[in-house]
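lol ok so funny story. i was supposed to be doing the assay writeup but got distracted and ended up predicting the structure for this chain instead. priorities right. anyway since i did it might as well share w the group, maybe its usefull for someone
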Amino acid sequence: MREMVGSKDGCDVIALARDGQEAIQMAMQLVPHMAFISHDLPGISGLQTCETLSALAPDIMLVLISDSKSQSRMENAMRAGARALITKPLDGSHLSALIDELAAARQRRESSEVLEWKDPSGYPKVISVTGAKGGVGKTTVAVNLAVLLAKRLPNKVALIDLYAQFGDVATMMNITPKHTVAELAPICDELDADLLQTYITKHRSGVHVLVASVKPVPLDAVTAKCLDNLLYTLKRSYRYVIIDLPPMLHESTLHVLAHSNTILLIANLFELTTATDSKRFFDALQQEHISKDNIGVVLNRVSKANRLNTADVQRMLDCGILAEIPNDRRLVTAVNQGVPFVLNDGDSPVARSFEVLAEAVAESSGYSTNRDGSVAESRDLRRRR
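and the output, tada:
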């Protein structure tokens, strides 16, 4: 075997171990690209050696050498972390081909595509914005959040209005969609990145917008299968996918919420019914096996005149408040003009509150929940602000 491997171009035998303990020690010290381990090693067996090296040095390609290749032995080898099981007597051409395959697999581990996956901050995020009732400002939050995120990553933010009956995203952004998700539903099996772009409407802020319908259609006009294909395709093209969901627990909305990285539950402090409805909605999501950790509460139109305060909502929901957006009449003006508020009033208290929300959403380590339910910002977040 030493002659077979040593005679292959580009290969060097750097060590020969006499037992399992030596094999582990040499592998840890020399860090070879590949290690061929005999099944019947004295002391620590070949399987145990593979299992140990697989845990200690996962970058080493492990090959187990055995005198037979039964189904059970193959399964045990794979469980131990071996990339292949070969049998004696060794065949030179087969061994050479295996080395080439393992070398190619190792190179793929170091490719730019794989290295991108090692950075979780670059993963696409699905952010659903919803509320327990209409009129709480969820679409306002979704639109302004999308615009702020698009300032960081133009053309990498998709805003989806999935309210198939009375969606307002198009109105708030003053756009006229040519195509809708409802039109896409019958051909969802054919959906790919190129087809999706023909249904997208591009806003001047850099946000790409897709609406469910321009006229009321049944809520189930877009099936779960279509939603799956849509989300999959969106995540292949966009860093942030922000979804404005209707304020109701429907099969389609629950399906999207279950597939969201972050859920923003929008509420206000104007009346007790909004708070109690938000509590019911919050509890219902957890009953659907949606983790509490994925839900962030955003209080909208906060002012001194509110009947409730932030502490009341914290106690009621037993969670921290992700952001508080002050009440400002100019928000209504912005809605009527079809211009997202943060585009024209970037230095106002409202815009700064949206910035805090965008920062928290963009950076998974941007906030944490204290024992008392309040939200603590990281040092990096405060320094950047």
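The radius of gyration is 28 Å. Residues 106 and 334 are 54 Å apart (CA to CA).
back to the writeup now i swear
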